[in-house]
Write a structure and sequence with these properties.
Layout lengths: L4 H15 L3 H18 L6 H4 L1 H24 L3 H5 L5 H27 L6 H25 L3 H16 L1 H8 L2 H7 L3 H13 L4 H31 L2
Helix pairs in contact: 1-6, 2-4, 2-6, 4-6, 4-7, 4-8, 6-7, 7-8, 7-11, 7-12, 9-10, 11-12
Length: about 240
């Protein structure tokens, strides 16, 4: 079976039409922008708050928009048709992810502009955003596949929202070395750490381990999403 851009465009077009009718997705898009506007009115030197508008945009939009679109397919019994269609796994995953990635990127840019975050080293920052998109859209795909309805994605995805976005707060709240160590491996924490390093005139040497962490998360999340997709395809 050959790779087909025509099939990918058909999936993207269908998702776009469904998106315009989904109020849950629209809320997921607006909330990060509202938080960025609120944060822009606050003056804080807390480094953990520096990247929070970006992380919230990545988690809320990247993961939840993707999860909602996947779960909506299941709710309407169209996902099975898609899974059993001639489209390959790669075509479906790309087609179902492109629109979410574009929307997430727009929301991230909007959050940066609204909150007034200074972005140094655009090259490294772009790599960090790309890896984050892969991570959270893959996680969103997983959430959507294991959720039975659109509303259920909120329940399944809530722990991800809390842990990935507010990891630093949870670490200080519980004051546990084990929890703090575990949270330090989250991709959002590494994103925040790398952003602080870049703003402090750091370069590749200072963020290389953060980038490696995010790369491993990206690879792992894609593999897991593909595995769960394969299981759902074979489910009766």
């Amino acid at each position: 079976m050959t790779f087909s851009m025509r099939r990918i465009r058909a999936i993207i077009t269908k998702d776009w039409k469904d998106l315009l009718k989904n109020s849950y997705i629209l809320v997921s898009i607006l909330l990060p922008l509202g938080f960025a506007a609120m944060l822009s009115r606050m003056s804080t030197d807390d480094s953990s708050m520096l990247s929070m508008p970006i992380n919230l945009a990545l988690v809320m939009t990247g993961a939840f928009v993707q999860a909602s679109m996947m779960a909506e397919e299941k709710e309407r019994s169209t996902l099975r048709v898609l899974l059993l269609s001639p489209a390959s796994t790669l075509e479906i995953m790309i087609g179902k992810s492109v629109l979410s990635a574009i929307i997430t990127l727009i929301v991230v840019i909007g959050s940066i502009l609204i909150s007034g975050i200074n972005i140094p080293e655009l090259f490294y920052f772009s790599i960090m955003i790309l890896l984050s998109l892969i991570i959270f859209i893959s996680l969103g795909t997983i959430i959507g596949l294991i959720s039975r309805t659109v509303m259920e994605t909120s329940i399944v995805g809530l722990p991800i929202l809390i842990i990935f976005t507010y990891g630093s707060m949870l670490s200080s709240m519980f004051n546990s070395p084990i929890i703090a160590e575990s949270i330090s491996y989250l991709p959002t924490e590494n994103f925040s750490s790398a952003l602080v390093s870049l703003q402090g005139s750091g370069g590749f040497a200072e963020i290389k381990w953060n980038l490696l962490n995010m790369l491993l998360w990206a690879i792992g999340s894609v593999i897991l999403a593909k595995f769960i997709y394969g299981k759902r395809r074979l489910d009766k």
